[in-house]
Task: structure prediction
Amino acid sequence: MSPGRRFRQRGFAIIMAMLVVALAASIAAFMAWQQSLWVRQAENLGNLAQADAIARAAGRWMQMMLTEDAKNQDTKFQTLLLSGELPAVPVEYGAASVAMIDLQGRFNLNNLVPGGKLSQPDVDAFRRLLQSLDLQPDLANAVVDWIDPDGETTFPGGAEDADYLALNPPYRAANQPLFDVDELVRVKGFDADAVNRLRPFVTALPAPSQVNLNSASPEVLSALLPKLSLFDAQELVAARHDRPFKDLGDAASRYPELEFSPSRFGVDSQFFLGAATAHFDRATVSYQMLLARSSKGGVQIVWQKPVSF
Result:
């Protein structure tokens, strides 16, 4: 074999060896990257599980706080509890935070048709609330038809199966109490903007409920009390801040011109919307839950759902 040919073969062998080394290095790097990715995924799943456990524990913590509040009847504590002022609680590698809203400071949409029967005073109040928010008052009839068990359309503005089956995709009226305020987007006449405008003032509770005079907003109070203007309702809310109502008799003595029916008003609450958020390393988990407090002080979670970020 000539020297030139041997030189070329030797060069080819060196190139092949370099390619093999480069390929091996690439494979090793890829395997290391895959292993690093797997480790990171495992860490993320572990962090997510830890955050989930902390968020659920924070929900139980809210139950305990509401139970203690029922025992103490501490107005200052209750104000702090429901004002969103509770600080985040540090945990190892993260933190947990909670917030609560007194849902009986809002208008319960299911009061429109309690037990399947129309409540005209509540319909009238809801119409006034809608009007005060620059929404069409006739939307109240659409909500009535969505909840009531019959198939008769309420005019004007109501809607039953025939209206919803004509949509694409078609569906039927629920003909049962609302589960959540978000359900309103399926009701005729409502869109996301209308629901968002209404959301701070309404709720959907699993049982007929009174409005808490100590937590209701001026808009809700003005809607429920026709003789109370929005301006006067704002003054009432400002006055109760330092001097909450002890009972309906106290409210009647301070505002004798108003009618505080015990079937529609109270001074305490049983239903609360709780939010629990937990951060653990890079993971965040949040839940919303409906908390119900019994007359004996026990608190249960009616429903709980995750919140997406």
About this structure: The first strand starts at residue 89 and ends at 91. The longest helix spans residues 3-72.
